[in-house]
TrEMBL record, chains A, B, C, D:
Biological classification of the source: Bacteria, Pseudomonadati, Pseudomonadota, Alphaproteobacteria, Hyphomicrobiales
Keywords from the UniProt entry: Oxidoreductase
Entry superkingdom: Bacteria
Sequence ranges assigned to domain Gfo/Idh/MocA-like oxidoreductase N-terminal in this UniProt record: 7-133
Entry protein name: Putative dehydrogenase
Length: 378, 378, 378, 378
């Protein structure tokens, strides 16, 4: 450990994402040469029991039922927020006010205004922020970006993006917090933000959208098996046409009731010299087609992740062994810690979360008005 | 041949589709129990030389440079039109006026009004018509339809359709008849009509669309290598949201500059009990997911075409041997001949071509106005 | 037709392969510039009824229940044999004796001695012969051969071949002619000959084999549902190690009880500079990996058949449309007719059928003795 | 931590596998409810510098250049051996002599006699052992086993196994410890042991083998770029036919020069009622075919790993997110720790390592004699 400075983490939330973040930090500490000695200080949950259980399983030193305790804990440098969307703003602003760096799950906040407030606070306070757009933290997506930036597939002309799963397909599944309109929306806000982030990452700023939203299941039982129904007000499906500042055009779809799909986070990018096809269903592969290849033996190349695609090599020295979802979280955590050490901004900081939310918001607005809605980037 | 009545075919056009139609008839005569003895009477091309060459290679008895000769040839019962889109109407109306059955390549005609005129003429004359929506004539697409109609994938909720190729990706490729706006459009009219036909076939009538069209290459050389440019006025890409009369919603894209794609005629259909995924890139396969399968061993089934998927068995008694594109044309030809014999209507007759054209037209209109456009079906 | 010489075909056998051959000739006449005007003269079947039915459906002029009539028919230049294996020798020798060219289904004959006799007779008579190794007549297999011969994948080092289907998987399926040991064997002779032919075609002469044969179902009902059983004496599975004259080594498997497999005719060829992977399950694709590609974007290329892969372009001017099994037969027929016209030898003539049979025979011998058996090539 | 007993780990070796083991333990502690509080006590490497570096990066408390120090460390309960094969025996015996549980990388030891000695020592001492056959620790492989054991694919009839990579394909790659014949062999011992373990795991004991070994590159530079060559005496490729005690038959291939392959650890298992196809290239998928499915919609199901396939759910509550190679190591570590807690034997303990080595050894013996070699199981 030598001269390495310690960095303390306080985690809020112990569900799916709470565990994934804890794992991300833990794996990052083993595979990357972190700039800090990592200290998992304290974990907060609604119940002390839940917090204590998470403390033990996730490897934290302390547990609390009051997330505000983390703010004043002098051992804690980073507040890591994995609670429902509705709570992000309050927690993040409080953390920033206490001078903490903030790692927050996506989407950043339900409204653009809240996101703007969070960005302003973070930038004024000079803290480093990170948002959990984990699908971007994939060596194969880094490769896609590199192939685009190097010009190897030429100028991007058209794009398709999808994020579809089926966890809401069952009409008898009860109403839940995911359906609370105060969260800022449904499928688009929840999972569509991932594909918007991917398109922005790879193709650049989106200038305008024309969209529609669909509610497939208009009412759901208030609890499993109940005959009392509650109206659903948020989108099960959102589809949008997008125009990029670069001139490229495309489309995306967010869908949480695509029966049979478990992780259809896909993009297809068509350039003047080639194309790139990716599906998160096979996250260790990237398909690339080069117009410049000999016509006789030209075809989509299925590239398998290997040490030649950083940071894959941090996880395994041999190609073809594959990384998993939690490893993406480790890459995300490492990027955050490196940014803290160097005082730089991760590519998916609060400002990027804000930009993504602007597209989410514009998309919902377009769906209401059936008109193209401009997005003010920058 | 015994008591089988002879049926005579007159083919107009000897290009890609002319050859495919001739092959379709020839193969159909060998694999199906046709209701007629087939007689390939005469072939017409712009040049007598071309016609004569096609006569020899495609197996016709006569050749002519004047397509009108076919109209009055008493041996000819069917006029088969494979000329550019612009010419379909005149030829079809003339054929109908002479009491001929008409087999016409898609799209039926550049405008809805012309299509309507063609339908009215055909129906009044009582002739049988067929339009070349060949991708529907696939045992795997028949299976998809059967799985939908049987209710095995439940009520259809959402749909995606794509028809993308890359033959216009090269910006230096010269202006051609495909870009002539009088043909009724660009990528949408030319290849998008295939995916519209597929969505209608599988999901039913489309009630409205919201669309955008993109011209990617605004001007092209008037001939290969020329520095003189001609403006492109038709779409390279069209994207649309669609609503079906059934309540299902979806999207489609037509794109003839999707670098690397040679035959991305794809559809994904999500129902309440399962889903269906197809790509023409692997036309002998259909992927189906059933919610009712045991959860532990549930997954997309990759079904290979076999004799259990009619009419595959007509081509081969053993499964897994595969049919090709020209075999789809044979199925199309057989369906037409059977309809003539029974006096019934093929599913893809002029009326269906008219319905598809209504969607094409509404899509272009929507792209101009940026509003939802209703399609009057029926 | 002009100056084209007529060539007459007499077909013996009207089952699966009889129909496929007739289709092959018919399609070939439409897609290739054949050196002859094709005349489907007469078809012979065991029953006159069957022959007559085939005459009508397959487009022949005459029908007969006596195959010997074809021998003396002056209109017939080619005798096309699609009967069970046991009958090939007698029919082929008779045809050769009458100066006919002979097209014969694989395997050529049950024993090496019979094959040798057939080769000697054909070569002495100066007739042209062709054997139905149809899977080799694939533009993608031609591409594989070209990539090997050009040195693009370097020196071939190791090879795997499989031909597996499941039509004999059901133990209650009755005993049939396929199980008659006089036919020369079971799965190896019947379908394994295809993969041996493929390995010879691509990697060159096989010098020795070490093999085992397995009888999975030791007895079968004498007819469907019967309780009387008949012993099975031929292989359900044969596995072999092979050594090539070039120094390459490999293995193959023939298996007709591989549950779920319909056409697993696969090969994988590993060279010093690349590798080639093919499955007949996707016959319009070839996968190729080049060591020389940039390491970052290196991966198996999935090449789709297109006009740049002759003779695909004869079937379709546009890439990605796909050919089917009967089209392979058309390529095979064309190759035969071109060889007749030029007096050359097709790559899969009787001599090649004889060489394949030598490997089949050596493989069975090795399985009996459990020793490496040399194959005298040449 | 409560009442949980502490368990201490001493790791020997800090290379590829050393890191993977450390990660496995670390991840296991976060995702599983381990029966112990895990204590990564000390790490040994040849150099103190290497050990110290690993201590920091892998999270151990102490570092040493003398692995024997771990034996007498009272905090250490488990000796974890990730050194080259040649060293396993000495280290394991020493650990056992000190009453430590032993976790050892595969293959267990170069000779069957050494393995027997190690098993005897471990069983006499009553310590728990584990061997690193990590590819078996995959939820999809567990599912495969479950489908076999439940009888869902019927009686297994035939099997294929491959473990192929290409890390030795380059003939200019220098001689290395992997080529030292004292290690017990080449590709078969090194990577082929994985596929033998998989076949045993899924299909049961192997009773006999008939094999061949190939040296593709007969000599290699003694160091990179050197002109001095050293003969290669171990196999680059080994192929074997295998017979199982159950009556099933099959084949396997080990190949470390299969150009383009990075992780072709594949098996295909054909039963009387279905079949299972797996490739480690897509480790989160299993393909299964059921004869009992409706014939019309029957096809290989591509099953994606999800919470319904334990222990996937420990890593992620949502399906489709995927686990990676290091997660397989975590499952392996957890299994070991659970066995220690309950005093049971992991399925891949030293005895299983010994059984695998017996097959490796018999395979080499068969290749020398070209005869079937029996394997005494049990």
């Amino acid at each position: 450990m030598g001269g390495k400075r310690r960095i303390g983490v306080g985690l809020i939330g112990t569900g799916f994402m709470g565990k994934a973040h804890a794992l991300g930090f833990t794996i990052a500490a083993r595979v990357f040469d972190l700039p800090f000695e990592l200290d998992l200080v304290s974990v907060a949950d609604i119940s002390l029991d839940g917090a204590e259980k998470a403390r033990r399983s996730l490897g934290f030193r302390k547990a609390t039922a009051d997330w505000r305790e983390l703010l004043t804990d002098p051992d804690i440098d980073i507040i890591d927020i994995t609670t429902p969307n509705l709570l992000h703003r309050e927690m993040a602003l409080a953390a920033i006010a206490h001078g903490k760096h903030v790692y927050c799950e996506k989407p950043l906040a339900p409204t653009v205004a809240e996101c703007a407030e969070m960005v302003a606070a973070a930038e004024k306070a000079g803290v480093v922020t990170q948002v959990g757009f984990n699908y971007l933290k994939n060596p194969m997506v880094f490769l896609a970006k590199e192939l685009i930036e190097s010009g190897e597939i030429g100028e991007i002309r058209s794009v398709r993006g999808i994020h579809a799963e089926d966890f809401m397909m069952d009409a008898s599944a009860p109403w839940s917090w995911r359906l609370d309109p105060r969260s800022g929306g449904g499928a688009l806000a929840d999972i569509g933000s991932h594909i918007i982030a991917a398109l922005r990452h790879l193709v650049g700023p989106i200038s305008s959208v024309l969209a529609e939203t669909i509610i497939q299941v208009p009412a759901r039982p208030i609890s499993r098996g109940s005959s009392e129904m509650r109206a659903v007000e948020v989108d099960d499906i959102t589809r949008a046409f997008v125009r990029f500042e670069s001139g490229a055009t495309g489309s995306f779809e967010a869908n949480w009731s695509a029966t049979g799909r478990k992780m259809q986070h896909d993009f297809e990018i068509y350039g003047t010299k080639g194309s790139i096809v990716f599906t998160q269903e096979r996250l260790n592969e990237l398909k690339v087609w080069f117009a410049g290849d000999d016509i006789r033996s030209r075809g989509y190349r299925t590239i398998w992740a290997g040490p030649e695609h950083p940071p894959y090599g941090a996880f395994c020295v041999a190609p073809g062994h594959q990384i998993g979802f939690n490893d993406l979280k480790a890459i995300e955590a490492n990027e955050f810690l490196q940014a803290i050490a160097t005082g730089s901004r991760p590519g998916t900081d609060f400002r990027e979360g804000f930009e993504v939310q602007k597209v989410v918001s514009a998309t919902y607005q377009s769906a209401k008005t059936n008109t193209w809605v401009q997005i003010g980037n920058g």
